[in-house]
Design a protein that fits this description.
By secondary structure, the chain is of the alpha/beta class. Among the domains are: 68 residues, Roll (Ubiquitin-like (UB roll)); 159 residues, Rossmann fold, CATH 3.40.50. The chain contains 8 helices and 14 strands.
């Protein structure tokens, strides 16, 4: 703060004045200033007298500190007032009606347009209606394009199956059967791959199959063929059988059928129902097929007999071959004797039965016995008979 300048409170008169004569004329300068009056000669005796005259100003002038405080308060008050700003926006053709050259101008609100209807249009309704219309038009255009594309894909010739490739087999009969399933000419989009695969799997010659689409007009089919392990001979035909008991096809349609062992089924003689059951695609008991394979593999090793015929007789259920029923096997020797080996479900293992057969044959050879039958179906008590 600036040190305040002190005003003199009193003044010492250095001159002697005569008391002014009262005047009736007003003093325009105020009481602080005095109107000079004429001086009269002062007597000699009053020369040495000194008088002190004290005057007081009418108003005290503000000091420098007070003026600073006033100016600061005025500045703060001016800053505290709400100020209004003028926003400047780029010139646009919609606002001015002419192309903007450069720079900025004040944003001007366009005058409202005249409408023929006395009811004013609400703000934003026209823009919303325009957006909805544009969206509907875009949706309609998309639907038209999709419909045209779908029609071309479903009815055009570019997506019709023209070639069917089959891999995994050299059996021409199987290849022709698959190719004649009516796949050529169909629309590749409408082909049911799962249903087609199931149809191919149902073929007796096929163990498994897979179907793949190759765009735009080809099908790739991969099959796994069944492997025959036996020939099953009946009175009305001989069929190849795989290890699962599935009847594959006729032996005449199989290449290399002469190398397979043959089981002669005696239970189907004269049975019309059994003839209808055994056909390509039908099934034999898996245990019977596995048991027959074991006989063909182990009998020559244990007994040394290689020239024999294996007959099959079904179980007691109506004398028919039925899925799940186990029949009985009979070995027919070229020497004329019969060996009843029983079935796959017997408690006595096949190895024990073959060993018993080998011992009986050795005993008959030593005793020069003419064997007629050997029954090995009763566990460890085999029975044999002699020819009369």
């Amino acid at each position: 703060m600036t040190e305040e300048k002190r005003q003199p409170r009193e003044q010492i008169a250095t001159h002697i004045y005569r008391r002014p004569v009262a005047s009736s004329a007003p003093n325009p300068m105020g009481s602080r200033y005095r109107v000079p009056v004429e001086e009269t000669p002062v007597e000699a005796e009053n020369v040495s007298v000194r008088r002190r005259v004290v005057t007081k100003p009418d108003a005290i002038q503000p000091s420098a500190g007070e003026r600073y405080v006033n100016r600061r308060n005025q500045m703060y008050s001016a800053r505290a007032r709400k100020q209004t700003y003028t926003h400047l926006t780029p010139r646009t053709l919609a606002q001015t009606g002419v192309a903007a050259s450069s720079g900025q101008r004040r944003a001007l609100n366009r005058l409202p347009q005249h409408h023929s209807s006395p009811i004013p249009v609400r703000s934003g309704r026209r823009g919303k209606n325009r957006n909805i219309l544009l969206r509907l038009l875009a949706l309609f255009a998309v639907l038209v394009v999709v419909a045209i594309g779908a029609n071309f894909a479903l009815t055009g010739t570019a997506f019709r199956v023209a070639q069917v490739s089959i891999a995994g087999t050299h059996n021409m009969l199987l290849v022709q059967t698959i190719q004649h399933m009516g796949m050529q000419g169909q629309n590749i989009f409408l082909i049911d791959v799962a249903a087609l695969t199931a149809r191919i799997d149902m073929l007796p010659l096929v163990s498994s199959a897979s179907v793949q689409k190759q765009w735009p007009d080809q099908l790739q089919i991969t099959v796994s063929e069944r492997t025959p392990v036996l020939l099953w001979q009946t009175s009305y035909g001989t069929y190849s059988v795989d290890r699962n008991g599935v009847v594959i096809a006729s032996a005449s349609e199989l290449t290399g059928a002469s190398t397979l062992a043959t089981v002669v089924d005696k239970s189907s003689t004269g049975s019309k129902t059994t003839r209808q059951m055994l056909h390509p695609g039908s099934r034999l008991p898996m245990a019977d097929v596995a048991f027959a394979q074991a006989i063909f593999a182990q009998l020559p090793k244990v007994t040394g007999i290689t020239d024999f015929t294996l007959n099959y007789v079904s179980g007691p259920v109506s004398g028919q071959v039925q899925p799940g029923s186990a029949g009985s096997y009979v070995v027919v020797s070229k020497n004329g004797w019969l060996a009843y080996l029983g079935g796959a479900n017997d408690a006595n293992p096949l190895d024990n039965r073959l060993i018993e057969l080998q011992q009986i044959l050795l005993l008959a050879q030593q005793g020069q016995l003419n064997l007629a039958t050997i029954d090995l179906r009763f566990g460890f008590r085999p029975v044999y008979t002699l020819k009369s």
